[in-house]
Design goal:
Distance between the termini: 44 Å
Radius of gyration: 23 Å
Number of helices: 13
Strand content: 15-25%
Shape: globular
Number of strands: 18
Strand order of the largest sheet: 3-4-2-1-7-11-12-10
Oligomer: single chain
CATH class of the largest domain: Alpha Beta
Length: about 425
């Protein structure tokens, strides 16, 4: 049994979905679980819908109609003008009914209930189209399989329940192909949760782990893992093989090709991960697996944009202590602020975080009792894995560096975007 994962770009329109069908048609003799993300930029659109709904703005109906129109137009092309299957239309009705109700007081809860619709609709469309094209499959609501705690927007997996339910549902007794969702899950009370932004990769790794998959393949719009973003560098080189450890390093630094949580479930079961192109499926791509020997890798450049540097300094001019660090870390956990990089000096603690949706001053207001707080926004973290002095000299000459860290193999520099 194998797990395939197709991201939003691979199902962004009718032509792309037909391309997915062609790939799956070539694997009809294999037992497959196919994990699919929301189509194109649907998650971004649904995030605007959550805000409009939570704050009771009338524009929620405009956004909802945009969401519905986008998907129905794709259906019209896929099903050649025939009636859209009721299984797809039922999700639009469910979301419309949700928007008519008064929201709860928990924004994160409402986020998960609404944003999850992107994956539910996309997988239903793909599943129905595949069946109409003669590629027999079974649609599965992954919320019945992947179970979590009730930390909405960043839930933790209950591995025991997830393994039990997944093995029960994905049993391959009547079907060889299952279509299911990435990113979404549910609590023991069947309340929808999500696994963190871009969490579809993690979903595929979870299912691969609990079902002991032979391997997992991510189908992307690039031919594998590259040494740089091809949209920003003409010198990007394809990397044919990476170790789990190397993959963790580059994903933690912000490489978007794989979600950072992905590697642990696969590493624990020694399940290889292939990264291949849905545009050129015959190209070998990249394999990530257990590699004991040293591999010569080129410098790998990773950019993580739209970051904020926060500098906290004790108001009484005391040194930054373990107690300060503990207080600030607990604050970050409570407010679900994810720290990309931390650096301490005698009287400053520097934190690099993703730019939040809310006002920075509002988020950190309670810390102003203890600390003076300064901000720098619109920053980019440049990470060079396997750096050379030549790489570093070039960046130093071109950018104003706000913060810098070096280790044996990795250099990280925070610069103005």
């Amino acid at each position: 049994m194998k797990v395939f994962k197709f991201g939003g770009a691979s199902v962004k329109d009718a032509d792309a979905i037909q391309g997915v069908a062609q790939i799956l048609n070539r694997h009809q003799n294999e037992k497959l679980i196919v994990v699919i993300s929301a189509m194109g930029k649907t998650t971004n659109l649904l995030e605007t819908l959550v805000r409009a709904y939570f704050y009771r703005k009338e524009e929620r109906w405009t956004i909802f109609n945009q969401f519905k129109k986008f998907h129905t137009e794709i259906c019209d092309k896929l099903f050649a003008g025939e009636v859209i299957p009721a299984a797809i239309l039922s999700f639009f009705a469910e979301l419309e009914l949700k928007l008519e109700k008064i929201p709860s007081l928990n924004y994160n809860f409402e986020y998960d209930q609404i944003v999850s619709m992107g994956e539910l609709v996309s997988t239903r469309i793909v599943s129905e189209y595949l069946n109409s094209a003669g590629i027999k499959n079974q649609w599965v609501d992954v919320r019945n399989c992947i179970r979590t705690d009730d930390v909405f927007r960043d839930a933790s997996v209950d591995w025991g329940l997830t393994e039990e339910f997944s093995q029960e549902v994905f049993n391959f007794k009547t079907e060889d192909l299952y279509i299911t969702q990435g990113f979404i899950s549910s609590t023991s009370m069947s309340l929808t949760t999500t696994l963190g932004r871009e969490g579809s990769d993690f979903s595929a790794a979870i299912l691969g782990n609990v079902l002991n998959a032979e391997d997992v393949t991510f189908w992307k719009d690039v031919p594998g893992v590259l040494s740089a973003d091809p949209k920003k560098s003409t010198d990007a080189k394809q990397i044919s093989a990476l170790s789990y450890r190397e993959a963790v390093e580059i994903t933690h630094s912000g490489a978007k090709i794989i979600h950072p949580k992905t590697m642990k479930p696969l590493h624990n079961k020694r399940i290889p991960l292939f990264v291949k192109s849905f545009l050129e499926p015959d190209i070998g791509g990249t394999v990530i697996e257990e590699i004991d020997s040293r591999i010569d890798l080129p410098p790998i450049f990773i950019l993580k944009e739209n970051l904020v540097l926060i500098t906290l300094s004790p108001k009484d001019f005391s040194f930054i202590s373990i107690e300060d660090i503990e207080r600030i870390v607990n604050f970050m956990l409570e407010h679900r602020v994810k720290v990309t990089l931390m650096q301490q000096s005698a009287i400053d603690l520097n934190l690099v975080i993703d730019a939040p949706d809310s006002n920075l001053k509002e988020i950190f207001d309670e810390l102003t009792v203890f600390y003076s707080i300064r901000y720098n926004t619109d920053l980019t973290l440049i990470t060079i894995r396997h750096y050379t002095e030549e790489n570093l000299d070039k960046i130093v000459k071109e950018k104003d560096i706000y913060l810098e860290q070096h280790s044996r193999l990795t250099a990280r520099m925070l610069v103005k975007s």
